[in-house]
Amino acid sequence: MNRCMSIAIHLGLFALLSSFNAPAAVSLSGTRLIFDGRFHEASLGVVNRGNHEVLIQAWLSEPDNVEGNPDTAGDLPFVLTPHLMRLDRSAKQVIRVLYQGQGMAQDVESLLHLYVLEIPRRADSANQLSIAIRQRINLFYRPAGLTEDPAKTALRLRWTLASGNAGLSVLRVSNPTPYHAALQDVRLDGVPASEYLLLAPGASHELPVAAVVDTRRLSFEALNDYGGVLAYCAHGNRDGFNNTEYRQKDC
User: Largest CB tally within 10 Å, which of 60, 145, 171, 196?
Assistant: First the structure.
């Protein structure tokens, strides 16, 4: 390999690694989007904070579309407008999500993924790479007929403990509400049990934990509709937990 080729390869690798570490130029107005079924649309703001214009593509997808490919997103009863746009430097735009009026469950909240793809302008130099950056947030379609308070979802979760295998116990959490529960930093006596857990309406999940001997202290954080974090804790025994309370500090 000659010296010129070696320099070119190293420059290309450096550009590739640098681009992966570069932050997105486009920022979104929220980390999640609640589509209130009482209205016909919801909106998400996008801002180009970079120094160059970018092309934006937006689309919705079912959660089971793991790759998030817009070509296999499925036929959803929503329309995004604009779904393709050019955003100048420091420019702002609003993406509107419109519901067609039927096709979504009306007794529970539904989860969709909203993707925003940022396509930068072609690099000026042959030794630079332009990498498209894709962001994804959760969109929760919330039917108009739900009467329970979504802010109390975390308080209504049911936590139980049971014996497991190999000297472990099982911490089980069930969601009896019609809303999704987004939990993070679940701990039992300060020992991490789960970093993040999104619990669908009516769903349950089991977490292996150290064998339970005495009363345990459960703590976790839950995300609200605005992406804010609220902390909760409860004291329990071998059978489960009660008296979950919002807290400003450790129990």
Answer: 171
- Domains with residue ranges and CATH for the chain: 3-142 (2.60.40.10), 150-247 (2.60.40.10)
Q: Residues 6 or more apart from 92 whose CB is under 8 A from it? A: 45, 46, 47, 48
In the predicted model, is pLDDT for residue 36 greater than 50?
Answer: yes
Does residue 94 contact residue 44 with C-beta atoms inside 8 Å?
A: yes
Q: How far apart are CA 191 and CA 216, in angstroms?
A: 11
d(CA 68, CA 82): 19
pTM of the model: 0.85
CA gap 251, 248 in Å, rounded: 9
DSSP 102: S
Q: Provide DSSP, 118-151.
A: EEEPPPSSTT-----EEEEEEEEEE-TT--S-GG
